[in-house]
Amino acid sequence: MNQIKYRKMKNSIFHGVIFCVTLIGIVVLVILLADIIMRGVPYLTKNFFTSFPSRFPKKAGILPGIYGSVYIILLTILFAVPIGLGTAVYLEEYAKNNRFTKFIKINISNLSGTPSIVYGLLGLTVFVKTLGLGKSIVAGALTMSLVVLPIVIVSSQEAIKAVPQYLRHGSYALGATKWQTIRKIVIPTALPGIFTGVILSVSRALGETAPLIMVGAATYVSKLPEGLNSIFTALPLQIYYWMGLPKEQFKDLAAAGIIVLLAILLTTNAITIVLRNKYQKSVE
C-alpha cells in the first residue's frame, strides 16, 4: 500500500511539474508574440512589402526576402518529397529485412537530429564548389533539401507501415502487381501521414538560417532574383540582418518580418493540412 501511495504521489508530482513548465512556456510565448505584434504591426505597410532593404528604416522593405523564401521552399519540396517518398517506399516495400537495411534506417533516423550547419558545410562543399552552382537559389534549395530529407523519409516510412496488410493482400488477390499495389493502394492510403512529414519539413526549412549562410546567401540584396542561379536572401536572414543593426527601428522592422514569416508558415501549413484532410476523407 505504501508503495502504491508513493507511486501515485510521484506521478502527481511529475504531472504537476509538467503542467507548470507547460504553463510557463505558454505564458512566455504569449508575451513574446504580444511584444512582436505590438512592435511589428505598425510597419506592415504597403511600402514594407514592395520595397528593398535600405539603411533608412522608413524606406526598408522585405520584398527580396519573401521572393527568396518562396523560391527556397518550393524547390525544397520539389527536390525532397519525391526522393524522400521513393526512399521510404523502397525501404518498406522492396528492401530485404536484413542488418544492412536496419543500419540504413537507423542512420536516416539519426540524420534527422544532425545540426543544420553540418548540412550547410556539406552543401558548400558539394553544391557550391564541386558542382559549381555558386551562391545561387538552386544551391540553397538543394542544401535545404538535405536538411529536411530525413524528416520526409522517416514520416513516409511510418505512414507506409501504418497501411493495413489486408489492403495489400486484397490487391494481390485481384491480380495487381506489387508496383500497382504500391501506386494505387499503399501511397494513397499513406498520403495523410506523408503530408504530415511535409508540414514538419516546410516548418523547419522556413526557419533555418545556418545552412543558407554557409552556402553564401546574402543578408542584403537590392534586387529580385532573375533566375534560379541568382544571388538570393531569405526572410530569416533578413530578420537576422535587421536585428544586428544599431537603430531601434530596425528591430521593429525585424518584428514585422517575424510576423510575415509566421504568416507564410501558417499559410503553407494550412494548405498542406487541407490537402491531408482531403486525402484522408477520400481514403476513408
Automatic annotation (TrEMBL):
Membrane-spanning segments = 12-38, 66-91, 111-131, 137-155, 185-206, 253-275
Q: What Gene3D superfamilies is this protein classified in?
A: MetI-like (1.10.3720.10)
Look up the coiled coil feature and give its residue ranges: none
Question: A biological process (GO) annotation for this entry?
Answer: phosphate ion transmembrane transport
Q: What does the UniProt keyword field contain?
A: Cell membrane, Membrane, Transmembrane, Transmembrane helix, Transport
Stated membrane topology is: Multi-pass membrane protein
Under Gene Ontology molecular function, one entry of this record is: phosphate transmembrane transporter activity
Q: Is the keyword Cell membrane in the record?
A: yes
Q: Which InterPro entries match?
A: MetI-like (IPR000515), MetI-like_sf (IPR035906), Phosphate_PstA (IPR005672)
Q: Where is it chiefly localized? A: membrane
The record's listing under Pfam families reads:
BPD_transp_1 (PF00528)
* Annotated ABC transmembrane type-1 domain residues: 66-271
A GO cellular component term found in this entry reads: plasma membrane
Q: Where in the cell is it found?
A: Cell membrane
Q: NCBIfam families per the record?
A: 3a0107s02c (TIGR00974)
Q: Which family does it belong to?
A: Belongs to the binding-protein-dependent transport system permease family. CysTW subfamily.
Quote the protein name from its UniProt record: Phosphate transport system permease protein PstA
Provide the species name: Ruminiclostridium cellulolyticum (strain ATCC 35319 / DSM 5812 / JCM 6584 / H10) (Clostridium cellulolyticum)
Q: Lineage from the top down?
A: Bacteria, Bacillati, Bacillota, Clostridia, Eubacteriales
